Amino acid sequence: MNLTAWRERLRRIDTLFLRLFLLMWVTLVISHLFAFSVVSPAGTGWVARLPSEGVSALPPLPSLPPVGPLEVGGPRNGGAPPPVPMADLPLRNSQPLPGMPTRSLWLDFALRALLIGVGAAIGARWLSAPMRRLAQASTKLSQGLAEGRDPPALDEGRGTAEVRASAQAFNRMAQALKLQFEQRSLHMAAVSHDLRTPLTRLRLRLEQLPQAAAQAAAQDIRAMDELIDASLAVVREQSTGAPPARMDLGALLQSLVDDRAEQGQAVTLAALPAAAPPMRVLARPASLRRIVENLVDNALRYGRVARLDVRLAGDGADGHVRVTVDDDGPGIAPELIPQVLRPWVRLSSGEGASGSGLGLAIAHDLAQREGGRLLLENRAEGGLRATLVLPAA
Questions:
Q1: Lower Cβ count inside 10 Å, N or C end of the chain?
Q2: What's the pLDDT tens digit per position in 41-61?
Q3: For the packed helices 3-13 and 161-194, what is the interaxial angle rounded to 10 degrees?
Q4: What's the CA gap between 355 and 222, in Å, rounded?
Q5: pLDDT digits (tens, 9 = 90+) for 272-308
Q6: Which of these, 315, 345, 313, 349, lies nearest to 330 by C-alpha position?
Q7: For residue 92, what are the β-bridge partners?
Q8: Which residue spans traverse the membrane (predicted)?
């Protein structure tokens, strides 16, 4: 049998049970030899006899010493123990083992417990190494999918049979998730791209409408174009793995509010103190703008107004920027707040407001991708408050 065949045969029997069994047995033997050398009157004499006597020179390997630690093996001062019947003592070379004083018995047990504890600690770290590698790969997987990078791959030929099977399952799952993310992004890009054609036809037909209707329709088409461009920009950032950029969040919010005000929408931004520091964050511009626009649209749809505010909280590594969007709507029942952050969940407002139940879900997903959080809460004076929390840059 060649070397490759032997390795393959060993791989088949290399299991977690076998490793744990061998580790426990080796630890037990080492603890016994160490304790015997320190406690026994013979000391390490058996080591000197190994070359001449071979295995027969090794000390006996009972599971416990001949006399228990709770049994009085002799006077407290370490004197000679009381005699033990010859038939009750284990024999080696037809010679009885000498009794052990109580103090020596306790020392023997302490040394064994200490060495077994050290062996258990080393074994736990050794056997848990595959779980640590799996945890690290899982963390890199979520980050890689969010940034458009290839998922990590675990070594399928390393470790026990259980570890190799887990690595194979993880690698298959990572590739399946990557394919799903790519297909989702492709479908979003395809839908956004295909909308260009009907919009172009609508522009041509505007000439047949009265001037007032044509202007209103042209504004709607321009708004749809902007939505398409924003969607494509978000998909492009995620697919290409574009790194986040350091940007002034206050300037982005002011630009968004100005655009909405020109359209006659009730959107305002609270003034910042003159000495306020710049509200800089590390994020992808298209994704961040999409988050805020979705929150503003939701506030206008259900609360008729959107009042924005941005503040810097904390300092150093704990510093973060908080963007709040308040409205005057009916709010949301506290028990229903977690549901509205899921796709396709739309709560009835009682006023016939239109929506697909995707705005808040998209904002929540993009906020997590940018390392932030989206929080919803009802204001004491009425209405809903959406808070976007992002790490300060």
A1: N
A2: 555 566 677 677 776 666 654
A3: 90
A4: 20
A5: 877 778 889 999 888 899 999 999 999 998 899 999 9
A6: 349
A7: 95
A8: 16-39, 109-127
Q: Tokens 């006996």 — which residue?
A: 60
- E strand or H helix at 290, and its extent? helix 285-303
The CA distance from 73 to 103, in Å, is 9
For residue 50, give Cα distances in angstroms to 36, 47, 53: 15, 5, 5
* Stated length of the chain: 393
Topology, domain 244-391: Heat Shock Protein 90 (3.30.565)
| DSSP for residue 81 | P
Q: Measured between alpha carbons, how far is 20 from 178 in angstroms, rounded to an integer?
A: 36
Cβ atoms of residues 309 and 323 within 8 Å = yes
Give the pair of three-digit tokens for residue 385: 């408050």
Cβ of 300: how many Cβ atoms within 10 Å? 19
pLDDT tier at 69 (50, 70, 90 boundaries)?
very low
